[in-house]
């Protein structure tokens, strides 16, 4: 059985190993002890503090193999981004250049530096070890965040975003970065990636272009990847699109990957999740369900066919093993969604 739970200080070594395995470009998990320890402490505080509105809180979960005790994945939510450390994007716009005298009308695409998503909630930090990428585990790791958000909506913004990794070339480097580096930053991608990962983003405001950039002036290879996702990220984007997320024209500064957004209440798994009492009995359902308790600091969730919803009784039937893992007793409430 795989179990999601809040991260603890005891998970530091496992989180660091995940940071190493996730590789460059995964800026939310830098290979930096102090930063990782801060993320764990920040998450522990967030899970234990009473809040009535989204603020500077981060919820980081780990996926544990209950048989081996090994941490095999992680997933997270930032309650309100950009409140203390600015969150930058390029916004895609179209400007019109018109000459009535010459009867010429040109529609030109531009990129403008902005902070438009300040205060939005962000789903982030999703990683699953390759050997576990099967049997709904990846889908569960993504969707379990929506179960948590559905249960504790006051902790999150009305707008939820997800930053998708941008396209890279054959050498694994983002073509969009090259022109940016040459003209504005004069530092290599790993250095910029590391600075962002440890929260040092002042150089963005100091060195990035302050005026709209005409896309047509960029190198062709940079233009072609604007709004495109990395090949390995396409399944994640497709899953989010099915949840109702849409791209509104905002892209990452360095790899031009799209940032997608949705209203919290309109996210499919939030809207379709059900909060019902549980009854404990041995069961083998036809569908794979993701089931979570309704706790905060003791939040736990798992998935499988050892749960099924009794429509007539309006109860969720779960096995004794699942009930024990989720710390649920007969009559307690749980929240679930269908993963199939």
Question: Any overview of this molecule?
Answer:
- There is one protein chain.
- By secondary structure, this protein is α+β, with helices and mostly antiparallel strands.
- The chain folds into 2 domains: 2-89 and 114-269, 3-Layer(aba) Sandwich (Aminopeptidase), CATH 3.40.630; 274-338, Beta Barrel (Barwin-like endoglucanases), CATH 2.40.40.20.
- Helices cover 28% and strands 29% of the residues.
- A 16-stranded mixed beta sheet has the order 8-5-4-9-10-7-6-3-2-1-13-12-16-11-15-14, with helices on both faces.
- The longest helix is centred in the first third of the chain and has 16 residues, at 33-48.
Q: Which labels suit this protein?
A:
340 residues, alpha+beta, Barwin-like endoglucanases, 2 domains, acyltransferase, Acyl_CoA_acyltransferase, arginine N-succinyltransferase activity, EC 2.3.1.109
């Amino acid at each position: 059985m795989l179990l999601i739970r809040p991260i603890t200080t005891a998970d530091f070594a496992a989180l660091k190993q995940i940071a190493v395995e996730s590789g460059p470009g995964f800026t939310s998990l830098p290979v930096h002890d102090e930063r990782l320890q801060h993320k764990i402490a920040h998450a522990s505080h967030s899970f234990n503090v009473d809040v009535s509105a989204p603020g500077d809180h981060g919820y980081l979960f780990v996926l544990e193999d209950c048989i081996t005790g090994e941490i095999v994945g992680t997933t997270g939510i930032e309650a309100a981004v950009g409140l203390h450390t600015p969150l930058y994007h390029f916004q895609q716009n179209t400007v019109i250049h018109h000459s009535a005298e010459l009867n010429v009308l040109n529609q030109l695409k531009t990129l403008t530096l902005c902070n438009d998503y300040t205060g939005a909630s962000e789903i982030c930090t999703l990683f699953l070890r390759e050997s576990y990428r099967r049997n709904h585990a990846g889908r569960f790791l993504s969707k379990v965040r929506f179960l948590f958000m559905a249960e504790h909506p006051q902790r999150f913004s009305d707008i939820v975003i997800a930053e998708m990794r941008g396209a890279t070339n054959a050498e694994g480097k983002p073509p969009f970065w090259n022109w940016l580096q040459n003209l504005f930053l004069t530092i290599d991608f790993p250095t910029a990636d590391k600075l962002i990962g440890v929260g040092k983003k002042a150089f963005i405001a100091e060195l990035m272009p302050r005026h709209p950039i005409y896309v047509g002036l960029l190198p062709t290879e940079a233009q072609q990847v604007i709004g495109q996702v990395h090949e390995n990220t396409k399944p994640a984007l497709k899953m989010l699109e099915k949840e109702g997320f849409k791209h509104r024209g905002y892209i990452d500064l360095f790899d031009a990957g799209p940032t997608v957004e949705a209203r919290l209440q309109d996210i499919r798994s939030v809207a379709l999740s059900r909060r019902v009492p549980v009854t404990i009995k041995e069961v083998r359902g036809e569908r794979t369900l993701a089931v979570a308790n309704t706790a905060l600091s003791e939040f736990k969730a798992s998935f499988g066919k050892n749960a099924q919803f009794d429509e007539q009784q309006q109860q969720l039937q779960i096995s004794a093993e699942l009930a024990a893992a989720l710390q649920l007793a007969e009559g307690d409430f749980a929240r679930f969604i269908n993963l199939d």
